[in-house]
Write a structure and sequence with these properties.
It is a single chain. With about 200 residues, the protein is of the alpha+beta class. The chain has one domain. It has five helices and ten strands. The strands form five sheets. Strands 1-2 form a two-stranded antiparallel sheet. Helix 3 packs across helix 4. The chain is globular and about 40 Å long. The termini are close together.
Amino acid sequence: MGWWRQLLLGLWAVLPTWAGPELLNICMNAKPHKPEPSPEDKLYEECIPWKHNACCTADTSWEAHLDVALLYNFSLVHCGLMMPGCQKHFLQAICFYECSPNLGPWIQQTDPHGQAERILDAPLCQEDCEEWWADCRTSYTCKSNWLGGWTWSRGEWLDTPTQNLLEPAASQHTQCLLTTFALRKRGFEFGCCPVRKANQ
């Protein structure tokens, strides 16, 4: 079983005792999330695990997989080739964010008028982070923090910053927790998880 699915199963098992029923089976109040989770039988690739109960639509899941994603007007391959194994981790994270109906414990309001929400400190196990790092160590990025410093015009991403050199992700930081491109700012919190048994 893939690490992402194990994380989801772990969250499914732990959430009812942590959060209570009012924080489960809800969608974020944010574009392009649906108002309520429901089945979506045509979700695309990395979003399929949520097809039975999703906060995303089939269109959203398809847009997340485009090279220049319509979803965020941003390309994961903004500085050249990103290896498919590396890109898969980012797509899984996007699908988790867009599709999961069980993010209630980590939803935070970003707009004082209640019009926008995001997740903050959702758990990401160290072993999953290490796998992400291993798959991304030869891929390239222009920035260690993807949330700021880009050239934007009319809401569209135009180019990469000229002051940063192209660097392999593995050379930017020495620890796996730092080489996943500022995931902490994308709403993830790193922590310890139970050790998996060899037959899992």
